[in-house]
UniProtKB/TrEMBL annotation:
<protein>
    <recommendedName>
        <fullName>Purine nucleoside phosphorylase DeoD-type</fullName>
        <ecNumber>2.4.2.1</ecNumber>
    </recommendedName>
</protein>
<feature type="domain" description="Nucleoside phosphorylase">
    <location>
        <begin position="17"/>
        <end position="223"/>
    </location>
</feature>
<comment type="function">
    <text>Catalyzes the reversible phosphorolytic breakdown of the N-glycosidic bond in the beta-(deoxy)ribonucleoside molecules, with the formation of the corresponding free purine bases and pentose-1-phosphate.</text>
</comment>
<dbReference type="InterPro" id="IPR004402">
    <property type="entry name" value="DeoD-type"/>
</dbReference>
<feature type="binding site" description="in other chain">
    <location>
        <begin position="204"/>
        <end position="205"/>
    </location>
    <ligand>
        <name>a purine D-ribonucleoside</name>
    </ligand>
</feature>
<dbReference type="InterPro" id="IPR000845">
    <property type="entry name" value="Nucleoside_phosphorylase_d"/>
</dbReference>
<feature type="binding site">
    <location>
        <position position="5"/>
    </location>
    <ligand>
        <name>a purine D-ribonucleoside</name>
    </ligand>
</feature>
<feature type="binding site" description="in other chain">
    <location>
        <position position="21"/>
    </location>
    <ligand>
        <name>phosphate</name>
    </ligand>
</feature>
<feature type="active site" description="Proton donor">
    <location>
        <position position="205"/>
    </location>
</feature>
<feature type="binding site" description="in other chain">
    <location>
        <begin position="180"/>
        <end position="182"/>
    </location>
    <ligand>
        <name>a purine D-ribonucleoside</name>
    </ligand>
</feature>
<keyword id="KW-0328">Glycosyltransferase</keyword>
<feature type="binding site">
    <location>
        <position position="44"/>
    </location>
    <ligand>
        <name>phosphate</name>
    </ligand>
</feature>
<dbReference type="GO" id="GO:0004850">
    <property type="term" value="F:uridine phosphorylase activity"/>
</dbReference>
<dbReference type="GO" id="GO:0004731">
    <property type="term" value="F:purine-nucleoside phosphorylase activity"/>
</dbReference>
<dbReference type="Pfam" id="PF01048">
    <property type="entry name" value="PNP_UDP_1"/>
</dbReference>
<dbReference type="GO" id="GO:0006152">
    <property type="term" value="P:purine nucleoside catabolic process"/>
</dbReference>
<dbReference type="InterPro" id="IPR035994">
    <property type="entry name" value="Nucleoside_phosphorylase_sf"/>
</dbReference>
Amino acid sequence: MATPHIRAEKGDIAEKILLPGDPLRAKFISENFLQNSVQFNDIRNMLGFTGIYKGEKVSVMGTGMGVSSIGIYSYELIKFFDVKKLIRVGTCGSYKKDVGLHDIILAQGASTNSNFQSQYELNGTYSAISSFNLLERAANILREKNYKFHVGGVLTSDIFYEPDENSYKKWASLGVLAVEMETYALYCNASRLGAEALSILSVSDQLVTKEAVKTDDREKAFTKMMEVALEI
Ligand SMILES: O=P(O)(O)O[C@H]1O[C@H](CO)[C@@H](O)[C@H]1O
Ligand SMILES: O=c1cc[nH]c(=O)[nH]1
């Protein structure tokens, strides 16, 4: 049963899915990590694949950029395709000097400047948190592999090009490690619909030192987080 955004039947998509923002990163993961991979989605070029990793069925699909886009895909994946474990594998901008380029962040929770939570008509502010089960497993795998990682809060922002380049300092003063654009919505949908979610992020930009990973490397350079996500 296809949805407006995913051309697949129930069973075509595994219970566990990796979700990069970039659909070409999904293709890269499929081609480099999965065996017997079959493409299940092409609508809007939001490429999705299902294959086998170490004997386990696993899927990978792009989400696009921003809360609205991942809000649609994660909702459809959980509600209509019975996906149970959603692991975002994304890039982020570090807010802390000691969180360097290529370091991995496990997003324990997400704050946001988006109004995604207004749909729930709460009389307060919702704290979007990850699945402790997935977080604990990812942390254990990272320790075993001896990969440098950090655990903490991130900001899910609607804005990539902030007019005030110092505004990040206020979030950093509250311990927020980095900025990206999807995790808050992913965690909300997973909590609301009864699935587990975790964002594993690689630092592509350093807002304190102004360093950045080269544009051509962004699709393929972050294989460590992909490996960890697949091993969970
Ligand atoms: O690398 P991805 O997963 O797309 O994540 C980050 O990169 C995009 C901005 O360049 C936003 O989607 C942000 O969240
Ligand atoms: O600075 C950055 C880097 C990646 N993704 C973001 O949203 N911001």
